[in-house]
Amino acid sequence: MYFRLFIWILVSGLGLTGCSQHNPLYEEGFYVFGTLVNVSIWGVPTEQARQAVDTIAHDFQSMHHRWHAWEPGPLVDLNKAIAAGQVWTVEDNSLIFLIKQSQLFSQQSEGLFNPAVGQLIRLWGFHRNEFPDDTPLPQSTTLATLIEQAPSMADIQIKGNQVSSRNRAVQLDFGAIAKGYAIDLGIKKLQQQGIHNAIINAGGNLKVMGKKGTEPWRIGIRDPSGQGVLAAVLVSGEESVVTSGNYERFREHKGVHYSHIIDPRNGMPVRGITSVTVIDPSGTRADAAATALTVAGLSDWHRIAQQMGIKYVMVVDESATVYMNPAMAKRIQFQTQQPPKVVLTDPL
Ligand code: AMP
Ligand code: MG
User: Fold this and answer.
1) What residues does each domain of the chain span?
2) Do the beta carbons of residue 325 and residue 221 sit within 8 Å?
3) Is the model more confident about 17 or about 281?
4) Per residue in 163-179, is it b (16+ CB within 10 Å) or e — as a string?
5) Ligand 1 pocket, 125 CB below 6 A?
6) Which positions in this protein are listed as binding Mg(2+) (predicted)?
7) pLDDT tens digits for 93-145?
């Protein structure tokens, strides 16, 4: 079993660790959210950059604890209260924000992005840090019961900081949006510390601000069929590049590959799409959208992207064909020896 998350930053000729006072790029990584988080900061003294990364690492550890879906903490407490049909006081404003944002994105995506399906995610064995090979697959009757109970973000009611659900089958799992929100908060925190040119890359969820000196940042998007880089994209100002891929986190059973992204309509792991990349100013929205569009698949991603207000999308299917809206195609530079087959869609 594998738990691999990669996005590649193409920063030519620079190492992965902190650099000297003379080098304007400072890079440092730390492990959180079950992935490596890399921070790249341009043009400030090394000590200032190091302190800023320390702050981000500390903040991210705290978010990881507060938003964790199965390790003891505030979200697990809330989920227990929901299962017991209780009204729960949520002290953590970031959790309230995540619920409200998720309600919006869930509604815009016609329920394809649905963080209320925590029970489905647990049933498929994804509420664990390591994946034993031999976990039994969920029984179809158990899945059918859950589908019938139809847990939805619309079931959640918020009054001030009092949270309740009219459906006890709701169990919140913010795995599809948390890292996107974290990079938004991380970039804001860097700005507060006087840093205006940086990248935060949390395993496939990346946000940039400013530039790398006089140049835009050059970001690599992983080839979902291997370890290489499929495409590069130039990004500057405040923009997020978020990729959802079914190669990232999956399990195998009797030779069958099961994605960690679940279709809430039938309770099954999604098939057919290997990766979706979304570019958007908001990391939170880009993260939710990349997951939603993976579930939407080839037939529906364009419509769902429009409903979510997304302007740049690249979808790769199992046969390695790349689907893009024209504005995205203008930004994408393929890095593979042979350019892939590309299908251009209508504008978004
Ligand atoms: P991402 O890598 O952003 O696509 O998020 C995938 C994670 O989101 C999974 O590991 C689950 O925790 C959760 N998840 C899976 N399917 C869905 C879904 N349809 N809607 C919302 N969250 C999901
Ligand atoms: Mg996501």
Assistant:
1) 23-69+175-201, 73-165, 216-347
2) no
3) 281
4) bbbeeebbbbbbbbbbb
5) no
6) 176, 287, 291
7) 999 999 999 999 999 999 999 999 999 999 998 888 776 556 788 999 999 99
Residues that constitute the known binding site for Mg(2+): 176, 287, 291
Chain centre to alpha carbon of residue 282: 12
Cβ atoms < 10 Å from Cβ of 278: 30
Kindly state the tokens that stand for 151.
């847990």
pTM above 0.85, yes or no: yes
What are 241's strand-pairing partners?
206, 279
- Please list the alpha-helical segments (H only) found in the chain: 46-66, 74-83, 93-108, 118-123, 140-149, 178-192, 283-308, 326-331
Cα–Cα dist 11/92, whole Å: 37
Which of 260, 276, 280, 313 has the most ligand 1 atoms within 8 A of CB, as the residue to mutate?
A: 260
Choice from 121, 177, 265 to test ligand 1 binding pocket (greatest atom count within 8 A of CB)? 121
> Domain 73-165, what fold?
T-fold (1.10.3980)
Alpha carbon separation from 315 to 5, 166, 287, 308 (Å, rounded): 18, 36, 14, 16
The CB of 102 under 6 Å from ligand 1? The reply is: no
Nearest-angstrom CA–CA distance, 165 and 117: 13
- Tell me the backbone φ, ψ of residue 202, rounded to 5 degrees: -105, 85
CATH of domain 216-347: 3.10.520.10
